[in-house]
Amino acid sequence: MKISKRGEYALRALIDLGIASELGWPMLQISELASKEKLPIKFLEQIFTQLKAGGYVSSRRGKFGGYSLARPMSQIKFGAVIRLIDGPLAPIRCVSQTSYARCSCPDEIHCGLRLLMFDVRNAISTILDRYTLADIVEITLRKYRRDKVTPPFLHRAIPITSVLPQHKEALRSKRRAAARNRFSGSPGSGTNNHPPKRR
User: Fold this and answer.
1) For 196, what's the count of Cα atoms within 13 Å in the CB-facing half-sphere?
2) According to the 3-state scheme, what is the secondary structure of the chain?
3) CA torsion sign, 105 to 107 to 112 to 118?
4) What is the C-alpha separation between 76 and 144, in angstroms, rounded?
5) Which of 20, 61, 94, 146 is deepest in the core (most CB within 10 A)?
C-alpha cells in the first residue's frame, strides 16, 4: 500500500480543519489551506470535492465561506478516508476486504504470498482503522504545546462575526482566547501536556 499525494494532502487538510476547529475556527477558506500546505488551489479543490462527496467536509459559499468538517472528528477514521481517496488498503487485491479480486494464482487458498499479504493488510488496517481525526488532532496540539510552537490558524485574522449568531461567536471568542493563552507563553502554558477537551 502506498498513499498517493492526493491521499496525503486529503489527510493533512482534514487535520488542518480539525486543528482550526479546536482553536475556535470551524471554517477555513481554501486559500488558507492551500497557502499552509503550499498546494495549488485547483488541486486542493479537487480533493475537497472527493471529501465532500464522502461526507467528511461541507462547504459554504460567499465572502466568509469555506470548508468545515461535516461530522465529529471522533467519527472520521483514517482508514476510511484513505480508502475513499486511494482505494483498498491491501497490498494485493486478493486479500482486500473492501475490493477483493481473484489473482492469477492457481491455488489461492494455499498461496504463501497471499497468507503473508493477509498479515500485512491486517497490520495496516488495524492501525489506520483505529485512529480517528480526533486522536491525531489531540496528539498534534499536545506536541505543539510541548515544543512551545504556535499552531497554525491561532492568530487568524478573518472575522466571522457576520456569519455566526452573536451568542455562538461569543463562545468561539472565549475558546480562541483560551487557546491563545495556552500557546502564547502565559504562565503554565508551556508545561500543559493535557489533551484539549473534545466537543
Assistant:
1) 32
2) CCCCHHHHHHHHHHHHHHHHHHCCCCCECHHHHHHHHCCCHHHHHHHHHHHHHCCCEEEECCCCCEEEECCCHHHCEHHHHHHHHHCCCCCCHHHCCCCCCCCCCCCHHHCHHHHHHHHHHHHHHHHHCCCEHHHHHHHHHHHHHHCCCCCCCCCCCCCCCCCCCHHHHHHHHHHHHHHHHHHCCCCCCCCCCCCCCCC
3) positive
4) 22
5) 20
**142 grid coordinates:** 499536545
> Of 94-98, 120-124, 131-135, which range is least confident?
94-98
The fold of the 5-75+132-183 domain, in CATH, is Arc Repressor Mutant, subunit A (1.10.10)
**Residue 124's pLDDT band (boundaries 50, 70, 90)?**
very high
Q: Spell out the domain ranges in the chain.
A: 5-75+132-183, 78-128
Burial label for 6, CB within 10 Å (0-12, 13-18, 19+), is: middle
CA distance 178 to 172: 10
